[in-house]
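Holo model, magnesium ion. Inputs:
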Amino acid sequence: MSASSSNPTPPLHVAVVESEPSARARLAMQLGSGVLDFEHFDDFAAQLSGIPTVVVLGPSCADPYNLSTLAAVLQPRPEVGAVLVAEELSTDVFQQAIRSGVKDVLAAPVDTAQLQEACRRVAESVGSLGRTLPPIIGDDGDPGEGGRVITVFSTKGGAGKSVVATNLAVALAMRTTETVALVDCDLQFGDVAVMLKLAPQHTIVDAVNSIDRLDSGFLTNLLVTHPPSGLKVLPAPLEPAFADQITAEHIRSIIAGLRSVAKYIIVDTPSYFDDKVLTLIEDSDEILLVAGMDIPNIKNVKIGLQTMRMLDTPTSKIHLVLNRANTKVRLDVSEVERTLQIKAETQLPSDIVVPQSINKSTPVVIDAPRSSIAKAFETLADRYIPAPSGKKGRR
Ligand SMILES: Nc1ncnc2c1ncn2[C@@H]1O[C@H](COP(=O)(O)OP(=O)(O)OP(=O)(O)O)[C@@H](O)[C@H]1O
Ligand SMILES: [Mg+2]
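Output:
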């Protein structure tokens, strides 16, 4: 990433703000020559002169006091785009940063390619004056060529992401002869392989280890087949410690590679925002946001929705899936929809066959196809591939 001298139309300044000298020097070095560096955010703010600027805020900027002062500078200046590199990528820091007008948050230590890519995206937004943040992904919900990427996400653990991801993926795989892939991006605690009774030869770690030669033939060989459905699975690392080796850029490349291998790519995720999940949210065609029927679930999902809206995720990409929607817990669906300001187009009943099927490592769409929950998954699958004739009436 270079500063104004190498990018004449329009001029662009690149700056770093970080009080700790060695961290400041490292970030400046990663961004290339001509970078302006500042110890304090106030000094950076004082020299702003209307020239489009990308500013990288180092970890010292991530304390609550500093974050609250950012808004006054960033919000009235659409020509200034900020990327925060934070020591700890907690939901609090993330949300506060986004609220203050920061465009992207990355975890320290950040790798050079990832930082430069984030800055390039922000540069695009500040370079085109008059628009605050052009969508990285087109509003038509078609961010890339090839297969359709559907990410299953929730800001609440245990909401049912893996149950939804596995059953939707298996239901789709059984409807088509084209490839359907399921990627377990819950990198520390992913349990897709266990839920599908797979003994993986390869995992996502193998894809990362060969990230420079991820052509479709290589990727196809890494995928593990789920024999009953033909689904192709890229499992999570076998050891949680391997998760640290995987970066957001790795995830981006793997998903991009899979688009040329599979017609549908379903992605399971952990229940927090980190740079990898944010990348998935950006790169997906659709996000199935799973919420359970209790107040903590709804509260967390509301925060998740607000965060995605602040990130300019097109609302048309988000599809709310209410899980255990028939549970008699004194919360009714319309109340939840009002609170979240989004319609629950998919409602999944609570059903004892779900934990029973998990314990048999067989998804309910295979284990109990006549159950109400399996029928609800088939209805969800209808969104993507119409049910084969003869099965239409089974909802
Ligand atoms: N509709 C349902 N009816 C009954 N039980 C369900 C239903 N959906 C999920 N469960 C149960 O909830 C538990 C959690 O589901 P799941 O593992 O899919 O959640 P998750 O969001 O992936 O969790 P984590 O955040 O830990 O990855 C499972 O044991 C499953 O049996
Ligand atoms: Mg899970």
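Residues 154, 157-163, 186, 271, 323-324, 348, 350-351, 354-355, 358, 373 surround adenosine-5'-triphosphate (ligand 1) (CB under 6 Å). Confidence is low (pLDDT under 50) at residues 2-9, 128-144.
Archived with the compound record.
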